[in-house]
Design a protein that fits this description.
The complex is a heterodimer of chains A (342) and B (272).
Chain A (H helix, E strand, L loop, with lengths): L6 H24 L7 H13 L7 H36 L11 H15 L8 H22 L4 H26 L2 H11 L8 H20 L1 H6 L4 H6 L4 H23 L5 H13 L3 H25 L8 H23 L1
Helix pairs in contact in A: 1-2, 1-3, 1-13, 2-3, 3-8, 3-11, 3-12, 3-13, 4-5, 4-6, 4-11, 5-6, 5-11, 8-11, 12-13, 13-14
Chain B lengths: L2 E10 L2 E11 L4 E5 L6 H8 L7 E6 L2 E2 L5 H7 E4 L11 H6 L14 H13 L15 H14 L4 E5 L7 H12 L4 E5 L3 H7 L2 E6 L2 E6 L1 H4 L2 H8 L3 E5 L5 E5 L2 H5 L15
Parallel strand pairs in B: 3-8, 3-9, 6-7, 7-8
Antiparallel strand pairs in B: 1-2, 1-4, 4-5, 9-10, 11-12
The chains are: A mainly alpha (342), B alpha/beta (272).
């Protein structure tokens, strides 16, 4: 049923989404090794944003504002961006297993980021996010060429992605082993697993705009993505310029993935699993699917981050471990379902 | 609205698939394109739809080379139903038809009640109103093909291009689908497999062989025993009924070889 959504219904849904997101952020700030009451979280935010002047313990305020809240905001942006990339790639390639991690885009972005950070590639002209973007694009082009040579099918793209991921991960390891100091190497290996530990507010200034711009660009193409339901020839006959749409959307996905990888490392399975969950909840129309995927991705990542901080007392798990623990069984489930339908 | 191909050539992988094909579609007609497998029917259809560009020559839509019109402008005038377009998405029948409004909707323009009306009419036209809320994967081949045609009709095209619309349908669905297509207002160009169906439903027939157009005209002029033997390599008897429609009876190899048997045990032309 996709009758005309009244403007009231639409803004109501947007409002509900915002409330859910704020609650998740609030939880992200309140829950941790030392639980901090929700009221203190609210007062901290009020102090920082509006100079409300509540008398608070500087330590609590510091933990909430500088550590947990920045982290939760970046986690949300990251989850939204990865879920959007996954949703877009799945629809564009008509492949339920497509996501930036599996297609090797994340691995390429890692290699690009590491090249800039350690090798000084680009001689100061390139920042880490830009290096990651170039790496992501190169990886996608390589994987696409490989997939076309391997016969285009669903399996071919996934296999090409596996090969691409391995190649770029090996390149990353090579660069790190050869050029990095021991300390750099340890930091980078931890980062590669997907990690939000070092995240602070400046990271949010990259992550949030990347996610929001990505969401806007994807929504701009929502109808075009719908038109790909029956394949690219069908999209072309519905008036979509297939090549331009492909370029734009793969570019947006690579941009979002690269931005997130340069901040938190490559986090798997979010882009794969969240779009499927969103489809089950709101259906296949991209006008609703994309915002829903972004919201669910954001909330999922905040929750995964909370778990990564609290699951083992005194230890922080890389967030990639949590997403993989949830995502891998879901991946298996989707594989099984496809088989049942075929 | 006019559509024509002017000396178009197309090749893939070094092999020439279409060689110097020219034809003009007449307004309001049902033009059938027939020919053996690999004769270039599908390639010709996608050139006419503007999805592929000819290597040389040009396809003209209303006098303008189709490559110079934007994709969206083409999609508002001409709808194309490709062979066997499938999806694994959990899309409903109605949503599949709604895709037909895509050429008229921009990123910011909202879906309107008028769009709903056009979709309703298209569903009604193909007799799929009752199944509108069913999921795609629960529908039969015939129902899916009807929805593809409804989707094309929702584009409100002047010309409807159909590539083997009856493939994989049983005979009852084949006939009812072609009957449905014949009743439509737009000009129809359809690649067809079955010669009898082409004879029954088409105003004119174009015959393709080895990438060339070898004949075009009304069925009873084009479908001759000689042409069918040359193009398809089968021997046939052709009869015309009182309505002027020709019926093709295929002679089996066996009946040709043994003269002591009843001369013809006609097999209906089932496309194979």
């Amino acid at each position: 049923m996709s009758r005309v959504l009244t403007s009231f219904g639409r803004s109501g849904a947007a409002f509900a989404a915002l409330v859910i997101l704020l609650i998740a952020l609030w939880l992200g700030a309140a829950i941790g090794e030392t639980a901090i009451p929700f009221s203190i979280v609210a007062q901290t935010v009020a102090n920082r944003l509006w100079n409300a002047g509540y008398p608070l313990e500087p330590i609590d305020e510091g933990i909430i504002w500088s550590y947990r809240l920045s982290r939760a905001v970046v986690a949300a942006a990251c989850g939204a961006a990865l879920a959007l990339s996954g949703a877009v790639l799945q629809s564009l390639l008509r492949n339920p297993l497509a996501d930036p991690y599996i297609l090797g885009i994340s691995a390429g972005a890692s290699t690009g980021a590491v090249s800039v950070a350690i090798l000084g590639f680009g001689a100061g002209m390139l920042t880490m996010p830009l290096g990651a973007f170039l790496g992501a694009i190169i990886a996608f082009v390589l994987v696409s060429v490989l997939a076309v040579k391997a016969g285009r099918g669903t399996a071919a793209i996934i296999l090409a992605g596996v090969a691409g991921s391995q190649l770029f991960n090996a390149l990353t390891s090579f660069i790190v082993t050869k050029a990095a100091t021991a300390e750099q190497a340890r930091g980078i290996m931890f980062w590669l697993l997907g990690n939000l530990s070092g995240v602070r507010w400046p990271d949010a200034w990259l992550a949030v705009p990347a996610a929001l711009i990505g969401l806007a660009l994807c929504l701009w193409h929502a109808r075009a993505l719908d038109a790909f339901t029956f394949g690219s020839e069908s999209a072309a006959s519905l008036g979509i310029s297939v090549r331009r749409t492909h370029l734009a959307l793969v570019g947006v996905s690579a941009m979002m993935t690269a931005a997130m990888v340069s901040i938190v490392g490559s986090i798997g399975f979010v882009g794969l699993v969240i779009p499927h969950a969103a489809r089950m909840l709101v259906g296949v129309r991209h006008g609703i699917l994309l915002p829903a995927a972004a919201l669910i991705g954001a909330v999922f990542m905040i929750v995964a981050d909370i778990l990564s901080r609290t699951l083992i007392p005194g230890q922080v798990l890389p967030i990639g471990v949590i997403t993989a623990l949830v995502g891998a069984p879901a991946f298996a489930f989707i594989l099984g379902q496809r088989r049942a339908r075929a | 609205m006019t559509l024509s191909a002017d000396h178009v050539t197309w090749s893939a992988g070094g092999a020439d698939i279409l060689k110097d094909v020219s034809l003009a579609v007449e307004a309001g007609e049902f033009l059938g394109i027939i020919g053996p497998n690999g004769s270039g029917k599908t390639s010709l259809m996608s050139l006419l739809a503007g999805i592929r560009r000819p290597k040389s020559g040009a396809v003209f839509l209303d006098g303008t080379p189709i490559g110079e019109l934007g994709r969206r402008a083409v999609a508002q005038r001409l709808a194309f139903v490709e062979q066997q377009a499938e999806t694994g998405e959990r899309i409903t029948a109605r949503q599949a038809v709604e895709l037909g409004r895509t050429p008229y909707l921009g990123p910011l323009s909202p879906w309107t009640a008028q769009d709903d009306g056009i979709v309703d009419a298209a569903l009604k036209n193909v007799d799929m109103v009752l199944l509108a809320d069913r999921f795609w994967h629960t529908l039969s081949g015939g129902e899916r093909q009807r929805l593809h045609i409804a989707r094309a009709l929702a584009q409100e095209p002047g010309i409807l291009l159909l590539d083997e619309p009856t493939n994989h349908l049983d005979i009852g669905h084949q006939i009812s689908l072609l009957d449905l297509v014949q009743r439509q207002d737009p000009t129809v160009v359809a690649a067809l497999h079955d010669l009898n169906h082409a004879a029954m439903f088409c105003d004119r027939i174009a015959v393709m062989q080895g990438g060339r157009l070898v004949a075009i005209g009304p069925p009873r002029e084009v479908l001759t025993e000689g042409l069918i033997r040359d193009v398809f390599g089968v021997d046939v008897d052709i009869e015309q009924d009182s309505g002027g429609i020709c019926h093709i009876r295929f002679r089996t190899r066996r009946s040709q070889g043994r003269t002591n048997r009843a001369p013809t045990a006609p097999l209906s032309a089932m496309g194979a």
